[in-house]
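Sample A.
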Amino acid sequence: MKIRRLRLGRLSVPLKKPFKTSLRTVEEVTTNVVAVETDEGICGYGEAPPTAVITGDTNGAIRGAVQDRLGPLLAGRDPENLNELLDIVDTALVHNTSAKAAVDIALHDLWGKILGKPLYALLGGRAREIETDYTISLNDPEVMAKDSLEAVQEGYSALKIKVGSDFQKDMVRLREIRSAVGKDVLLRVDANQGWTPKQAIRTISFFEDEGFDIELVEQPVKAHDFEGLKYVTDSVETLILADEAVFSPRDAFTILSMRAADLINIKLMKTGGIRNALAVCAMARACGVECMIGAMMETKISVTAACHLASALPVITRADLDPPILCASDPVEGGARYSGSMVAPSDGPGLGITAIRGLVLE
């Protein structure tokens, strides 16, 4: 069996309501779908959404990386020789982590389909239900409090609160939200790099003094500011989660060596796919550090891959896999199964995806 070709398609899925952070506003999930096809008619799927403000990847960059570089390098090769293929993907070009992730995921899906096993089993795990949090977009405090209460009434017990546009207003946002949802709901705060280290310490200390009982604060400072992240981590009691600071295994090694954060957030679009995510998880486990599995604004294709990874690895103890929940429709048949706040991988081979409605491959 040989890889015949890589093909690209595009999907656009409207959101139920605009998704707002300190970095951007999104009204629909727009993503590039990669299909790796063999000469025996087996196909593996991956995806790469453009997230320029985080990964630097645009639609043009993703499509160019896949069509002009990765596709020609993989054509004609044995799809069962997975590690060799992943080495080619990883070293074929620098950066371009979203394009690499899409191909990496598609190769893992294809591998599972060829072997007739679900990906979580091939990664050494079992199918387990994972509870995802629900993201509350950045808005005025009263709007965020209303959205938070609605999410709790729908059955979500963990909320991820977007902040970071104004650290003083962020204090008001959390006061309003905690008052609205009560004391039993788990609150996670995501600043998306929106604070300076001193603003972060002031704001988080306010949360602690006011008894808001915040479980963790995600990426309070700029991604490149490892020293600032460590300063915040060392200065507050609340757990600090590194997100945009950790793209590669090398980033993870630096953060873990410095003890610059208490937790690491893994996103396949940052790591360049599953293989590098496994390396990050291995280092975190060796250091006794737990991980969260997250996602960009993606469809269920790559979120399913993240779900398989989380099912396989006990070091991943938290999940932020709600993008398919935020979408107004789901074009993906099969894959991860959602039931309220719980998500689990299917038992189908690879990712368990059987069809993608509306997808036209080039």
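Sample B, a different protein:
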Amino acid sequence: MKILITGATGFIGQHLLEELKEDDFSIRIIMRNDSPKFWCSNRNFETFIADISDKTSLGKAFQDVDVVVNLAAELHDKNKFYSTNIIGVQNIINLSAIHNIKKIIHLSSTGVVGMQYSNKKVIVDENSPCNPKNEYELTKLQSELLLKEFWEKSDKKIIILRPTHVFGDHHPQKYLLEFFQRVKSEIAIPRCKNTTENYVYVKDVANAIRFFIKNDTSSMVVTIGETISFQSFLDIVSGAFGVSCKIINVSSFLNDFMKTIGYFGINELKAKFQAISNRIKYDDAYMKNNVLYKYGISKGIKKTIEFYNI
């Protein structure tokens, strides 16, 4: 099987290359420059210098390919949201049709739903209505709609994966490390009762992509990421350090107050309160019943702590 991966030099991309190194696949990767920084040990791939927003640079890379894994996305530069997240996906669709590629696996985000916060329990699944709250989320949703239109008009298999908050070794922003340090130092953590956390270890995302490369499934949208209570999350982290960390229980009645002060421009304080009182749960039933979490949150946290030697 010949696989083409875009965004392979990124955080999730290099973890995917590691995950695939024992498989008998022929791997091609697209990269925008000829000197990316690789940390992964898998070098068993063919490289193409191209940009998904430039269709003319992509043609040769798509020849004789069976599966395209699209991990490329623009997260920060607003000037490139449209060209990368929308035009890039349309180019992948067009070239997949031309070269008769059997399957596209596209990495999206639960952010497309636009449900960042609720102080009441809300369950979000793959069929929940989408109402993006920012330009990035909007472009990611538009790319999903392009792919869904393609699967309705063709015989291609389209898999859209929506991870929650991805963490792990080699994260470019070292996500969660500050929180881990606070727990290790036994600093009390403020939280409201029944707060939930939505995280997924990066290697579980990579393993899910590998599952859909290897298995013949219907076209679908799949949420990746476990929801656990904040107390359970804290117990896992504090247990990894062998310490006892306390929670300062913040009364949930403050939620209405925080909504009010948001109107007066104190949005930073409001955002911090929302982070400690969120009760959204993402339904990951397909992952739990079919793909399974190879690592899970607990093992993922321990491996991340070990990697950064905290």
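Observation for Sample B: The chain has a mean pLDDT of 92.
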